[in-house]
Amino acid sequence: MAPGTGIKAPVPRTRTGCLTCRKRKVKCDETKPICGRCERLQRECVWSEDLQVISQGRPPVFSSATIITTRSDVPALQLSRPSGQNFVLELPTVDRAMIPYVHHFVSFCCRFMAYSNDNEGNPFQEALAPLAMSSPALIHSISALAASHLARNQPSHEITAANHYSIALRELQASLSDAKIAQSDATLGACLLLCVYEISHSDRSSYSSSWLEHLQGARDLILFRGGPRTSDYLTRFFSLLDVSGALFSGKGTLLQGNYWIDDGTDDEGSKALNWPYYDGSGVMTDHFHQLMTHMAKLSQLSSEALGEIGQENPDMIAKKGTEIYEAMLHWWSQCPPELRDQNKNWRRLPREKKLTVSETLEEEAFSSTKACLLGCVIYLHHILDPVGREPQKNEVTEAIIEILEIAEETPQGYGLEMGLYWALFMAGVAVFNDVVAEDLIRKKLRSDMTVSLYHADRALDLLEVLWKRQHQYGTKYDWRLVQSQMGIQVFILA
């Protein structure tokens, strides 16, 4: 009551809480999908469908989605696209409490699955998400991944993420007992999403290598389906995860061969995907896939160098390294000028006509591809001289400088950092007691985790230990051995 009046002070009212709290006229903390009060009192937490849109925390990045109801009273998601063409996903069999997570997956997670801000003709939106309506393993994998990402800002989602993850594992195991279901896109998709869940999980206290176990399961499923097909978006996504993971696992790629190289058709004559949409001419994807062949060879070389034969035959490792390096430089020299010769100040260059969203995103992808190449240069030289017995090569010094320049020029808040994490990590490995460079790398690797699906927590933890040792003892350390000593398994999407 207001002091001395005997009259209740006005209580602020909100129309944005859950219907359960509003009906009982109590304050709602607005945590979705289950608010704190309903969770504590074990009540059904009901939300009005027009309030189910989950905020992404930042200004929208080229996309928005709305929950609607179709004429047949079926809940649906309507996704707005840069082209103005809407995509509608009906959710006839989805539990009401899971709708916000499906929404977040379709409107946000899909856009950062493989490429940043990929929001037109995205196969995870258009092909995979609809399969979840008839696949328990996939719908729970989707919910687990979405809830895990939301938990970065709202920790209350963490328990929900863990619950969906547990159910997804059980349902996936059940799917494998039926040969037809095991060969489906839904089952392979669920396996890959659980891999991404482990890679992007926000719990820094967890350093398990479960992502690698899920990736091995996905490999087995691909082989069970008859082997990799270039035009299959799930196989293509697997290849990106496989090559990226191999650079850190020290065991080489799980599937051999350059099966991700696109020649326009696969073995069955079907046309390959034009993905992502902003790389319409395929300049970035075609040439990045070529770079992936060199990355796969580098991962195999790293594995050999750490093995007994490689330790006893350093000249053999050096010879193979030189061959890979020369092939990589030859590939780069053959790349189109718009990729190879891109000015790092391209965002500030005067233009007669402003770049479109699609053109801007393609230019950003070019910057990431160049940074990835520079990271590979550092990676190769680290394999050949992991503890700095020789003076640092000029090409390594130049690669560090250019990576940091690209990172400084890349705008934050749009999820573009995910394309630089690999290069930044390798720059962090190569610098030696340079606190200025370390601070910049630290800042960029700590970028807001809510604006992209992947993050670099584990990689930064590894660098911090590496830097601390190098500052303390004044000598270089092999990050691969430090990773092993820490008992962790880092993953960065290249």
Automatic annotation (TrEMBL):
CDD domains: GAL4. Residues 17-47 form the Zn(2)-C6 fungal-type domain. Its main location: nucleus. The keyword Nucleus applies. Transmembrane segments: none annotated. The keyword Amino-acid biosynthesis does not apply. This is Zn2/Cys6 DNA-binding protein. It comes from Glarea lozoyensis (strain ATCC 20868 / MF5171). The lineage of its organism: Eukaryota, Fungi, Dikarya, Ascomycota, Pezizomycotina.
